[in-house]
What does this fold into?
Amino acid sequence: MKSIQKIISNRNIIRYPSWDLVYEWEDVFSRELGADIGYLTYYARIINKICPALKNVLLSGRIKFIFHMIPRMGNSIDNSASVVPLIIDFFIREPRELEQFYKAYDRCKVVLISSKEAYDFLKSVNCPLPIRHLALSIPDKYAIDKYALSNKTYDLILSGRQNDRHRAWLETYMKNHPDLYYVYRVQDGGVFNYYTNKGESLGNLSTRDDFMNLIRKSKIALYATPGIEGDVKRTNGFHQVTPRFLENIACGCHIIASYEKNSDTEYYEIDKFSPNISSYEEFEEVLNRCRQQPVDIEMYEVYLAKHYTSQRAKELTSMISRI
It folds into this structure.
């Protein structure tokens, strides 16, 4: 049976905070698949030293898995029958760019797309690549801990990119409910610093554990899928559910969400946690209720069991065994 034998990582050359979660996924895949983690620089150096005509010979045999934050659009050493890429963000619609995408991956035996919405779109335009859907996940080390969630300090947290509508609603809510205690972030010189609306500085939370612990202290999280309102241009109209949604659930937060209904939001069952909030009146009503009620931890546990990274490793193993 075919299996993933090596995971190719960027961790020794890319230090952006947005990649920290990727490296956590890699660690879980490595453990669950029994696959070593290799480094892209070493991988690329070997390829670059030999004749391009020998590329497929060199890369044949051991099956390698790699995360691509966005699609590669040019000639890449990852375009090989022995490389399985998982594309995290896919926002391509224009036919000419789609053709570039197809060419960039035309030697891969399988190309994994994390977004169900993007996967369905590619199927609808007759994508010639052997694509499969493998959704994003949350690392198992963040498994929900009902005892760790008993100490909720803040009413609400703005833990990631927020849309203007949520901010406007929150400002209105504060006029009527000045006792609300919440956390927000500000980007200062490329670093995200966190503050409370009471004037307290919480620092920049330099580690993932610090960040997750802050969310655990909050009762409620506001969440919006990318690509709505002013974010449409960036995502080209795609509305992929991001890992932040799963992180908020793992930290035992009520979710107040605005989202586009599509196959990705259906896959993640967002409506189990929040209606699609579309007015201030609805926002105020749901926020008031969430401030008073505890979350259903048992329901959260059952839900997250479907979305831990170890579960995705099992799904990947099944896919690879059939190529």
The CA atoms of residues 71 and 87 lie 6 Å apart. The radius of gyration is 21 Å. The first helix runs from residue 20 to 33.
